[in-house]
Amino acid sequence: MYERLKDLPNIECLAFLPGLAGVDLHITVQGEGEAGVQEQVEKMAAEIRERVGTFLYGEGDQTIEAVVGEMLMKKGWRIAVAESCTGGLIASRITDVPGSSGYFERGIVAYSNRAKVELLGVPEGLIAAHGAVSAPVAEAMASGVRMRSNVDISLSVTGIAGPSGGTEEKPVGLVFMGISTAENTFSKKFQFGNERWVNKQRAAQAGLDLVRRVLVEPATHGGGI
Asked: Which letter, b or e, does each residue of 106-115 get, where b requires 16 or more Cβ atoms within 10 Å of its Cβ?
């Protein structure tokens, strides 16, 4: 983010506030009169929008779950989610938004391997060959919940939240997410940290952002983002 904005005119007026949900950018300017200040703020905001592009998901007090909901409503799409390591956190955030029944179909917490097989149709052999925390299983989870829910797009998440359960090959904080639509199913790998609560929060945010990016530019996301 900073690399895209470091040579921005009046960069000293911009504050970077990183957090679990991303980086908030606060603009502070001085001027004579409210109209003059607003004009400066909007000029700087326009430059930021151009430079940051699709990394920017909202302004003011917009949350990513509200933004995703607006996008789904605009497209007339419905979504379903299949969660393992996040334990229903993504579904909870989606349904925190008033009116989410207009686009949210269902959320399935398939925490155990048996649940992934029985509720989502993930082949047992796939789990045996690759492990529950893997790209193939994330994709099978996403495809399974989409087909069973008869929705337009689905999101899945499977990972090792910690603090235990990690290995050298698959450390704590490793998360795979799957996206499935009628046209395509793919997965993306993430590596977060060692704190369980933080990993769950970051995974939920990243999952919602993954959906947002697909809704913005579906043709560009065939093998990852």
From this structure: ebbbbbebee
Nearest to 207 by CA among 112, 53, 88, 62: 88
Per the structure block, which two tokens stand in for 185?
Answer: 């199913």
Domain tally, the chain:
2
pLDDT score of 214? 97
Q: What is the pTM of this model?
A: 0.88
Q: Is 69 found in the same domain as 135? A: yes
pLDDT at 99 > cutoff 80: yes
Q: What is the pLDDT of residue 45?
A: 85
Strand pairing category for 79-83 and 153-159: parallel
Total Cβ atoms within 10 A of residue 185 = 18
Instruction: Check if the beta carbon of residue 57 is closer than 8 Å to that of residue 67.
Output: yes
Strand, helix or coil for residue 185: strand
Instruction: For residue 211, give every residue at least 6 positions away whose Cβ sits within 8 Å of its Cβ, in sequence order, or none.
Output: 68, 79, 153, 155, 179
* Structural domain that includes position 157: 64-220
